[in-house]
Amino acid sequence: MKKSERLKKIPPYLFVKIEEKKEELQKQGIDIIDFGIGDPDLPTPPHIINKMQEVIDTKEAANYPTSRGEFPFRKAVSKWYQKRFQVELNPRDEICCLIGSKEGLAHLPLAFIDPGDIALVPDPSYPVYKICTTLAGGEAYPLPLNTANNFLPELDKIPANVLKKAKLLYINYPNNPTGAVADLGFFEKCVKFAKQHDLLLVSDLAYSEMGYDGFKPHSVLEVPGAKDVTIEFHSLSKTYNMTGWRIGMAVGNKEAVHALGTIKSNIDSGAFKAIQLAAIEALSGPQTSVEENNKVFGERAKTLINGLNSLGWKLPHLKATFYAWIPVPKGETSASFAEKLLEKCGILVVPGNGYGPSGEGYVRLAITLPKERIAEAIERMKKLGLGPIY
Ligand SMILES: Cc1ncc(COP(=O)(O)O)c(C=O)c1O
């Protein structure tokens, strides 16, 4: 069997190895406190499940959907964007349904990247941007995110020869893995830059509904003229605790949405219609669950950050997402500290370098577990005795 050269360039997906390690330790009877993958532990709201139960038993639901999404789904997305961001989207040609935003993000480079082309990809970032650029034959040029630049890419530092070959500029705020946020001023800069350099701006907005203490993230499409150069990816996964349902959307520039749709229509046949109907209920129905979620995650974030700060960290409070991005103690690497926490405390965290070289020196903690477990993790770390952190 001869596999493709392409496959050789792809590392195993970050969480595959982590899940294997977790299983191995659990088999040994170790109680693992899991800050790993970032999959909400809270339930999907009942009105969404009820809708799914109501529609699943129909002939219509059993048939092929359209790969771009059913028109009522696209209309619900349009209304949601209008209500949430005051952004107008035409459901006919500016919205495409996705089988989770990962699917759309993974397919996008196939529509825009040829061998030799460059995608500008934040480092660290959600691994799909880089890996799928590579799969399409292109190259990811890293835009380092660090404390000095407030985890915002420094666009003016990108060399001219790189920009000449660049076609895509990825941004993701609120950000995975750093938990960083961006304001409209930064989005304006990105739109201007994309126009100047003939780039498609790819905004990943998967965490827009997870804001704490009154913080409400923006959409890039709120910037006047953004639609000329922007495609935005969104997902119901985190907003409504629906990660396993696989439903999301790409919206914005119609040429870009159409290009993605062309790839998709040749690869998949769209999201299960019953899920699209349940998603309409999610987007159009009561949004109280979103507020309740944020209250729970906000409290957990405070428990974690206050706890870590009592151990010597100096972390700011989390404004959005459910990720804490923490520097490792002096003398540790991402890998050595993650290993130490797992083996000595039974605490699973993700080594930051799994998200790109600039993630070295950090670990990521997802607060998808009850407050009591977070407090217990802090106690276990206290017993470990960490030594100086900075
Ligand atoms: C930044 C970011 N984008 C996109 C996704 C994909 O989400 P989904 O495919 O569930 O919509 C994730 C999932 O963790 C993510 O962290």
Summarize the structure.
The chain is an alpha/beta fold.
Helical run tally: 14
Query: Main β-sheet: number of strands, strand sense, barrel status?
Result: 7 strands, mixed
Beta-strand content: 5-15%
**Helix fraction bin:** 40-55%
Stretches where pLDDT falls below 50 for ≥5 residues?
none
- Category by helix and strand content: alpha/beta
Radius of gyration (CA) equals 21 Å
User: What is the global morphology?
Assistant: globular
Q: Main sheet: which strands, in order across?
A: 2-8-7-6-5-3-4
Number of strands: 12
How much is the average pLDDT? 95
Give the ordered list of helices and strands.
HHEHHHEHEHEHEHEEEHHHEHEEEH
Bound molecules: pyridoxal-5'-phosphate
Cα distance spanning the termini: 50 Å
Describe, in plain words, how this protein is organized in 3D:
The chain has helices at residues 5-8, 14-27, 46-55, 59-62, 71-85, 101-112, 128-135, 160-165, 184-196, 254-267, 273-284, 288-310, 334-345, 371-384; strands at residues 33-34, 95-98, 118-123, 139-144, 166-171, 200-204, 230-235, 248-252, 323-327, 347-348, 350-351, 362-366. With 390 residues, it is α/β, with parallel strands linked by helices. Helix 9 (184-196) links the parallel strand 5 and strand 6 (200-204). It is globular. The mean pLDDT is 95. Bound molecules: pyridoxal-5'-phosphate. Residues 38, 100-102, 126, 172, 176, 204, 206, 235, 237, 243, 248 line the site of pyridoxal-5'-phosphate (PLP).
